[in-house]
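Working notes for the structural subgroup meeting. M.R. asked for a predicted model of this chain before we commit to crystallization trials. I am recording the input and output together here so anyone reviewing the notebook later can reproduce the run.

Input as submitted:
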Amino acid sequence: MTRNQKSLIGLVVTGNISEFFDMFLIGFVVALLTKPWNLTGVEAGVILACSGLGTVLGAIMWGRLADVIGRKRTFWWCVVSFVGFTAVMLLTPDRGWWFLALCRIGVGIGVGGLNISSIPYVQEFVPAKQRGLLAGLASVFIPAGLLLGAQAQKWIGPTIGWRGMVALGIIPILLLLWLRLVPESPRYLQAKGRLEEARESLAWAMMIRPDEVGELPTYEKPARSSYGLIFDKYKKQLTIITIGSFCFILGSFTIQSWGQTLLKDGFGYDAAYVGVLFTWVALADVAGRLGSAWLADIVGRRLVMFSFGLIGAVGAGICAVAATQANATMFFVGILVAMAFGDGAFGILNAFGAEQFPNEARSTGLGLGYGIGSTAKIFGPALMGALIGGSMIDVNVTLNAVPTAFWLFSLLLVIGGVTYLFATETRNVSLDKI
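Returned structure, recorded in token form:
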């Protein structure tokens, strides 16, 4: 690994941490606004679900555009999108939950596109033997965004208020300065017939002169590169990624978005202590994602997805049982297990999904499959909000709603793990042979 390759990976990792700090921030904001705004379960659910709606639109739209305008330009526009709409959130009027919800759609569009475009960006610069881990790093440290949000809520949330918390999400605009130092993907450039630029991009990655780069791999331009190509030639891959993503996302995203509120208003913890608890959740999630990305290069992608799905399902089941007993400690342990494994699978989930498609359709296929699967980010929070219902969130109602939801999450994690057993194993396979 050269210094330049490490710089690219560092940019992508930092970008995903920053954008998901912005994404997870809404969970902490809703927890702070629940009582001051007298939010109903449905209203809180709509706010959280709108973030999910944005990621669906963003993944599908930016995934396609990354194959059209390039990985680098897509990365740039995604940062502009989620930072811009975060800034607009500061104009939210008091009790304007609907305005907040609309802004979260825009934030989600940027967030959904950045992770989808950044994974192929890294994959196309690194060797096959380490591709699972190195591309997975784009997703491994995403929970650090949750960690930053938890720390912000604990230490400065009560002081700066929810608007101050939102303002922190504007800082990632500085990523655009770093992006200027990184070239476009060589495989994208080659696909566009820009061979000399592709050679220069590879030379940058290997830190050698362009004339020292060997022969470029043979590339045959497809007749077309569009959604039609995916539906015509890669229906099986699309189906696997869509179902698998939906199942893993529904449970983990709902826990991320509703967990703070459940612990605070369901079990009676204060906001600062919820921040402490979710610091441990974030650390467990990072460990799980790093483990899945590392193991994927050793035992294979399929086995990792299957085993992590089953163990994550056990965690969701623990949460369901704990809620029936009003056992806060047991509930928190269940969240730790569910997030370390159910959400930990995302250390390789999108990287594995991208590897199911050849160069000409990699971002488009991943974006479409993951985007459709990301509808779970709408259904999960909305379902939880509907189950909670009521006017002001009530403790008894909240805990009564939890078992049904978490048993559903458990079942879906099992289905998701099994689904990936039907994918094509890509460990140690060159991207040019996929």
